[in-house]
Amino acid sequence: MDSIVKLKQFVFNGILTEDSLSTLEKEGISIRQGSNIQPIARIEETDFSPRIIHSASRMASIYIVFFCLENAVRELISARLSERKGIDWWKSVPEKIRKNVDGLIKEEEKYRYHAQRSTSNIGYTMFGNLGQIIIANWEDFSDLIPNQQWLTSRFEDLEKSRNIIMHTGLLPEIEIERIESITRDWLRQVG
């Protein structure tokens, strides 16, 4: 009898998993096929020149890398500092960064009709600020990162490329390879 209950539970869990995967795929999140990401088409691509479409397609995958990496670093900082410093961990962020974040939030509040950038302060930090936060709280990250120079050099390289992508510029293949290499290094080191 016990094996029948376990079998029913196993089948039920399988049905729940299948339903969850189907829901994610309906939202455009491909789980079963890996990273086969399909863009959300809201504007006809034919309205743009083939050169622009091709360039955008090449840079789209790099944007995804930056989006994921930048937000993964934010999550790491939030998780690590809240674990080590408690609910008020934001107070351990350098004052200059906190003031910049407060200014961005106040500016954003003027435009109530528009979506917010983030629901947390860390979401308002600039990419370069993330490395500064880690260094300012070095004792909480030194077990993950070999040294501050390693962190600084990688973040400086990434920020240069990031700014090109975020302002609709094109990166040559050698820069894309550098981004991929630094990202792999980060994931192996911190992951």
UniProtKB/TrEMBL annotation:
It comes from Mucilaginibacter panaciglaebae. InterPro entries: HEPN_Swt1. Residues 66-191 form the Swt1-like HEPN domain. This is Swt1-like HEPN domain-containing protein. The lineage of its organism: Bacteria, Pseudomonadati, Bacteroidota, Sphingobacteriia, Sphingobacteriales. It comes from the Bacteria.
